[in-house]
Every structure is written in structure tokens, then in C-alpha cells.
Amino acid sequence: MTIYGVALLAISFLLGQWMGSLLGDWLGIQANVGGVGFAMIFLMLGKEWLVQKKQMTSEMTGGIAFWSKMYIPVVIAMAASLNVKSAVSSGSLALVAGIIPVLASFLAFPWIMKKFNPKHHG
């Protein structure tokens, strides 16, 4: 049954890549735009559909969980390295556009945690 979880993941990946290519073509870019995001959406929708139909078994869940643990970090690392290469080759504006949100996050995160983190009474 684990193979069915992997099959759902594979179908989601293929549909996501297809949708990303279509979106890229529609935008006039010869690239896959958001294929991984579409794949994740298809995977979530497919999983929920199987759960509603009571077809999702623990073995299928295990197959999806195993490959998602392997797949997601690899894809994120690949996308991050491509984004860095693209930003560096595009010039200083792309670098500034990437650095500003990171710095803003570093500054805002401690304030958010202090403001909204409930105090634990011991």
C-alpha cells in the first residue's frame, strides 16, 4: 500500500509541473512558475479526497510522509540556490530586494514573539 502513497505523490508532482509550465507559458516566460506549489496543492487535495472517501490507509500516509521528508528539503534547496544565482547575476536591486525582507523579519520576529507569546505560569 505504500506504493499508492508514492503514486499519489508522483501524480501530484506531474500535475504541478504541468501547471507550472502552463503558467510560465501564459506569462510569456519559458520556465516553470510555481510547479512545486501546485504539486503541494494537488497532493493536499488528493489526500483530503482520499480521506473523505475513506481510502487513505496508514501505509499510504507512510509512503507520502517518507517521500515528502526527502522531496521537500531537496526542492527548497534547489530553488534557493537558483534564486541566489539569479539575484547575484541580476544586479544590486535584486540583492537589496532580498536583503530588506530578511532584515525586517529579523527585527520584527523578537517583537512579535514578545507581544503575542503567552506567558507561562509555573
Helix content: over 70%
**Distance separating the two termini:** 46 Å
Low-confidence stretches: none
What is the average of the pLDDT values? 78
Secondary-structure element series = HHHH
Describe the structure.
The chain is 84% helix and 0% strand. The protein is mainly alpha-helical and 122 residues long. The protein has one domain (2-90). The longest helix is centred in the middle third of the chain and has 33 residues, at 58-90. It is flat, with a radius of gyration of 19 Å. The model has no long low-confidence stretch (mean pLDDT 78).
Tell me briefly what this model is.
Pfam families: MadL. With 122 residues, the chain is mainly alpha-helical. Helices cover 84% and strands 0% of the residues.
Topology overview:
Blueprint (H helix, E strand, L loop, with lengths): L1 H26 L7 H18 L5 H33 L1 H25 L6
Helix pairs in contact: 1-2, 1-3, 3-4
Features:
single chain, 122 residues, mainly alpha
